[in-house]
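User: We ran a pulldown and think these components assemble together. Before we commit to crystallization trials, I'd like a predicted model of the whole complex to look at. Sequences follow.
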Amino acid sequence: MLLAEKATARDWKPIIAQLAAVVGSKGIIQRREELITYECDGLTSYRERPDLVILPKTTEQVAAAVKICDENNVAWIARGAGTGLSGGALPVENCVLIVTSLMNQILKVDLENQAVVVQPGVVNNWVTQAVSGGGFYYAPDPSSQIICSIGGNIAENSGGVHCLKYGVTTNHVLGLKLVIPSGEIIDVGGEIAEMPGYDLTGLFVGSEGTLGMATEITLKILKTPESICVLLADFDSVEAAGSAVSGIISAGIIPAGIEMMDKFSINAVEDVVKTNCYPRDAAAILLVEIDGSGLEVETNQAKVAEICRQNGARDITIATEPEQRLRLWKGRKAAFAAMGKISPDYYVQDGVIPRTQLSYVLQEIEKLGEKYGHFVANVFHAGDGNLHPLILYDNSKVGALEKVEALGGEILKLCVKVGGSISGEHGIGADKRCYMSEMFTETDLETMQWVRQVFNPKELANPGKIIPTPRTCGESAKSAHKFSGIEQY
Amino acid sequence: MGDSTNDIPLPISVPIDTRELAELVTIANRSKSPLIVAGNSSKLDWGGMVRDARSIISTQKLDRLIAHAVGDLTVTVEAGMKFAKLQEILATAGQFLPLDPAYPNTSTIGGIIATAATGSLRHRYGGVRDLLLGISFVRADGKIAKAGGRVVKNVAGYDMMKLFTGSYGTLGILTEVTLRVYPLPANSGTVILTGAIEGLRNAAKILLASTLTPIAVDVLSTAFSQHLEISNTPSLVVKFATIPASIAEQSEQLLAIGKGLGLKGGTWQGEQEQQLWSGIQTGIWGSTPVGCKLGVRSTAAVDTIELLDRSTANTAKGVIHLSSGIGAFALPDASQIQSLRSHCEAAGGFLSMLQAPVDIKGKIDVWGYRGNAVPLMREIKQQFDPVGILNPGKCL
Ligand SMILES: Cc1cc2nc3c(=O)[nH]c(=O)nc-3n(C[C@H](O)[C@H](O)[C@H](O)COP(=O)(O)OP(=O)(O)OC[C@H]3O[C@@H](n4cnc5c(N)ncnc54)[C@H](O)[C@@H]3O)c2cc1C
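Assistant: Here's a predicted model for the assembly, 885 residues in total across the polymer chains.
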């Protein structure tokens, strides 16, 4: 829970006047009922109403607004579409939210150099739409891709179901125009993947809005493969599906993506989305996308099917035509939303484990769920070991959230214990910061703080996120390195 | 190394483990004695000249394998592990680290990361930054810190792996790193197109816009093509590594493209192919007094090679990796640096004169920084190394 300190109410009038001079009065939202939308992101259990929302359109406007915040010591938080799942865009008391929804222009499309320049409010799948006519696509495809913003993707280093072969957001960003918390405009990276000097582009991606705001983003796009095929295999145990994943990887095949859904998720999706392509009686399904030249796909598809069968797959469905492929993916991409339909609330975790630990960890998660009396559904990026345990609960029941958070915490600790991470793509935000000390020592965290110190010395940009402090996390802000002698990852 | 870093010989310390390394750094920091940070010293002369160094500190004894998680396609090693040694270990499991650095036999992993040194394989596997999953390092104050982790996907905390890649040992001394590894391709074949620059320019354009799936695509200057016994013209060298039928099919398609453009084409395989790629990897650095790393937009790659040919009367070896636009030139002297640099900058890129005699480095800017982020980078250096003991002057 947030322990926001009560600050004395601020006199917003002069600040509003200054901001209005920058973004116009239409670019400012200050009516209580309109501000409600901005109280939380996709992690709805944390809420805090911002005092003010501004909607800039240009880098210069962002820079001027940030400068005003700096001069008046006002905390500010960047917000894209608000789909984040770690409370990254959660307001703090007495803050201004800088929302990018009007910064929604695709500024440049350069197919020959395979690069696109966008404003941060551009929606993820607009990028692919803008270049697909030329036979290109933008690879990172979070399931929220029809609403989430590129700015949010940059801040979280988002992944998606196609990130096994081609990498996550950071592997597709060439350069950024940044407004740093002093209000200065800084260009990092550029048109080429490596420029002389420190890789500030790489440092900024995944910094969750704590180092400044990205106002222009140069993305790399990829050529759409000649041939693509999606293979759906169903298994009567999760372990069998897990061994099939290991089998595929050890055969030297790197599919574009390998996703797994367990029985509960399959049924939730079929209840809500009614794709009619996932077998309801399966214990687990795998969705494997294979791409490349026609011959490569043909060969690898046969190999993957064979490996699935060897590991006990019952049925295998193969889709090559775009509509069929999308149909197979649709249920997977709608999985979180489906949970939201069948349960009053859900809490999603994002831990990563070495993929060889899959069976063990899934069994342990089930046991933990039983211990806490909550059902945990699993739908996740199996190829890279990025779990998404979904804990279903009812927030209107007193004490339910606390219990769910405790269960979530145990799952994260389990991931760390087997050598993994507390977050693969959703970010630390407000949600997981108190678990950072499970992974990192005080020295590690202090070193990260050095980075923030340089960009954001007054902590005005997204204060309190990512790194635990005694104020936000109490005692657990101190490193919890209980296993002395061995490095924890 | 008889090198341009410092002409005076310096004492070298070779700590046997991380703890000893940390102690030495603590002492250097306390006594404000700048250190030259080295792995196996293969690239000690790369970059700016270190100011006022009192000694060299080398990680070469930190060379243990910590863990090769075969099924997870990751490997954790101490930073002083030799690249060649690591590849041997990985090969026993049918895997490899997809980097092709300049000095494969002598380089340490830490040195490769510090200089972001890789080449042709960028096309399929990305740069060093894209493979580095976790790091431990000794900070300038002697404390040991880490970032990232051992799994292939991880967003917990700032991405210090990116910050350290290419930071030339100026922010901390890497002691242990986790890298993503890949299955070794079982088959490969290389197509070479040679001939007039116009034809090569079009071939490059068609290739990039095609759905062919090569793992490396390089443009080579005339002198480099001659040196590698390819031709007396510039060349486009394309490696496929997939199933044999697809290699054959894709090679044919590419040869047909070349033919249509009036280029000569050939396919290389086996021993000869292997030697070719190892020649591309190692043939530039250290072969002439001045060695440069450069970058240009990929559409400018062939033109940049043409300019190199023209301005050196076909005598300079050069390679540009087509899709990333990153490349390397070997120049006899620094006379062309300024004009090549302005060309690269106009093409959205840069030119850094990594290797050059001391007097030249004293006269010409080594790095060719661009843009307005340099003050921020210097602040980072200041924050990480306030006394300035880690490779001061090397970069930034
Ligand atoms: C149904 C659903 C499915 C999802 N599936 C996936 C998935 O498959 N993979 C995945 O990785 N994530 C997924 N997510 C999480 C989420 O969509 C991503 O984290 C996304 O990148 C957030 O984008 P946003 O525009 O909504 O950002 P917001 O939630 O508005 O903000 C997220 C963070 O970014 C910062 N920020 C926003 N814009 C900027 C900017 N311009 N500059 C600097 N910082 C900025 C904010 O301060 C905040 O810290 C899913 C979420 C939902 C609700």
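Chain A has four domains: 7-99, 106-223, 227-337, 343-477. That may be worth checking against your pulldown data before setting up trials.

User: Thanks, that helps.
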